[in-house]
Amino acid sequence: MRLLMISDHCDPLAELGGKEAGGQTVYVRTLAQFLSDFGVNVDVYTRWDQASKKEVVQMGPRWRVIRALAGPKNYVPPDQRVGLLDWFSRSILWRTKYERLRYDIIHSNYWPAGLIGLSIKQSLHLPLVHVYHSLARSKYEAMRRSNTPIDFIAYHQRLSAETTIAQHSSRIISTSPGEKQLIRQWYNVPGEKIDVIPIGINPVIFHSVNQDFSRRELGWSTKKKIILYVGRIEWHKGIGTLIEAMAQLVRDQPEVYLYIVGGAKSKTGQQLEAEEQQRLQNLMRQHKLDRYITFVGPKRQDELALYYSAADVTAIPSYYEPFGIVPLESMACGTPVVASRTGGMKYTMVDGETGYFAEPMNVADLARKINRILSKNKSHYTRNCIWRVQNQFFWPKIAQKYLTYFLALNEKNSTLPAQS
Ligand code: UDP
Questions:
Q1: 230 in the Ramachandran plot: left (φ > 0), alpha (ψ -120 to 50) or beta?
Q2: How many alpha carbons fall within 13 Å on the CB side of residue 28?
Q3: Separation of 127 CA from ligand 1 center, angstroms?
Q4: Which of 40, 213, 314, 315 suits a disulfide with 330, CB 3.0-4.6 Å?
Q5: Ligand 1 mean position, distance from CA 303 (Å)
Q6: What span, in angstroms and rounded, lies between the C-alpha atoms of 420 and 418?
C-alpha cells in the first residue's frame, strides 16, 4: 500500500517548539514512521519553504518527505499560502507522473491540505481521508471569550473550506469523541463518515526517569516545587494565565518555580512569536516573577523525558486545545497534569486521577489545582498517569489501528477505476 500524506502547514522535519511546528508535525512524522515500519510506503508532501532544504528526503526504506514547489522557497504567511494551493496540487500531480507513482489513499492534515487533497482526489481517483487537527469555530469562540480581535474574512474563508472538506472528503478521522461531535454538528456530516483514532505517545521517547536523577541532570534543585510548561509560545496556549497563576502560587509557596520549554529556534520563527514573547516577559516583570520563571527555549523530543520526569506537575492552560499531546507525554513520564477543561484533553485526562482540570482563562482555578498537586507527592498520581497512557495512547497500538483502517479502506476502494 502507498499512502500520499499532505502536510502543507508543517514540515514534518521542522525543529519542534516554534509557531508552526508542534503537535501536527509530531503526529505526521510519527504516523509515517510507524506505518512504514508496518510495510506501508508513505510520501509526505510539504511546502518547499526554504531553498537550502532538500527536495526529497528519504527517511527510511519506505517513507519520504517531499517538498512541493508552491510559491517562493521561503516563509510565506498562512493567509498568503491560500493562493498557492493550486500550485501545490500541480506539484504533487507532476511528481506522481514523473515517478509513475501509484498511490492508494490520500491523507490530508489541517484545512489547506484538505483543499489540496480534494483537488488531487479528482485527478487521481483516490479516496481522501482528512484529519482537521483544529477547527475554526473552536478558535473563534476562544478568541471571542477573551475579546481578542478576530479577522472575520479569514475566519469565514476557513469555515467554508472546512465545510467543503467535511462534505467532499471520503472519510474523516477525528482525534477525540468530542471533536467528532463538533464536526457532525457544525458541518452536518453523518456520524458513520467519522472515525475516532487518538494521537499516540512513543514509549521509546516518553518514559519515567527518576525525579532526583532528572533534576541533577538538568541542574535543577531537588528541593524546589517545579511546574513545567511545554509547547509553542502562542496566545491560545494560555501561558499568560499561567504566569498570573504563578503570582498567586508564590505567595503560598515561595519555593515554587516555573520552567517554560518551547519557542522557535530559527530567526523567522522567533520573529513570528516575538509579540507574544514580549507580552509574557512584560507580564512576568509586572508581577515581579523574574526569579521564579525560566524560559528554557525549545528542546528536542528525546530531551523532554528528563524535563517531564523532573517536574512535579505539568500545566497546560490552553484557551482551546484540539487534542494536546503534551499532557500525554507528561503522563507517560509519570507526572500529573493540570490542564484546561477543553478539547481533546477532556478525553485523554481523568480528573482527580491523572491530575486536574482547570477552567480555561481562570487564574484562581489554575493556581488552586496546581497547588492541590504540589501539596501532595506526585507519586500519588504517577501510576494512574502511566497506566492511562499505556492502556489507550501508545503509538504502536494506535498505528496498528491506522493500518487496519487504511487496509480496509483500500480494499473497499479497489473496485474503483485505477489512477491514470
Ligand atoms: N515540543 C518539542 N519541543 C519543544 C516544545 C514542544 O518537542 O520545545 C513538542 C511536544 O513534545 C509535543 C508537541 O511539540 O509533542 C506539541 O504538541 P501539542 O499537541 O501539545 O500542541 P500543539 O503544538 O499541537 O498546539
A1: beta
A2: 33
A3: 30
A4: 314
A5: 12
A6: 6
Ordered per-residue pLDDT tens for the chain, 420 residues: 999 999 998 899 998 877 778 999 999 999 999 999 999 999 999 999 999 999 999 999 999 999 999 999 999 999 899 999 999 999 999 999 999 999 999 999 999 999 999 999 999 999 999 999 999 999 999 888 888 888 999 999 999 999 999 999 999 999 999 999 999 999 999 999 999 999 999 999 999 999 999 999 999 999 999 999 999 999 999 999 999 999 999 998 889 999 999 999 888 889 999 999 999 999 999 999 999 999 999 999 999 999 999 999 999 999 999 999 999 999 999 999 999 999 999 999 999 999 999 999 999 999 999 999 999 989 999 999 999 999 999 999 999 999 999 999 999 887 655 443
Backbone angles phi, psi at 297, to 5 degrees: 90, 180
Atom in ligand 1 nearest the alpha carbon of residue 24: 24
Q: Give me the CATH code for the 211-392 domain, please.
A: 3.40.50.2000
Of 385, 408, 406, 389, whose CA–CA distance to 397 is shortest? 389
Minimum CA distance residue for ligand 1 atom 24:
23
Dihedral angle, C-alpha 66, 72, 77, 79, nearest 10 °: -90
Instruction: Please give the distance, rounded to the nearest whole angstrom, from the Cα atom of residue 401 to the centre of ligand 1.
Output: 23
The reply to whether domains 2-200+394-412 and 211-392 share a CATH topology is yes
Residue spans of the domains in the chain: they are 2-200+394-412, 211-392
Indicate the fold that domain 2-200+394-412 takes in CATH.
Rossmann fold (3.40.50)
Distance CA(129)–CA(109), nearest Å, equals: 9
Q: How far apart are alpha carbons 192 and 206 in whole angstroms? A: 34
- Grid cell listed for 330: 507528561
Q: Find out whether the beta carbon of 301 lies less than 6 Å from any atom of ligand 1.
A: yes
**How far separated are the first and last CA of the chain, in Å rounded?**
17
User: Rounded to two decimals, what is the model's pTM?
Assistant: 0.95
CB 358 within 8 A of CB 338: yes
Cell of 49: 519553504
Grid coordinates of 295:
524560559
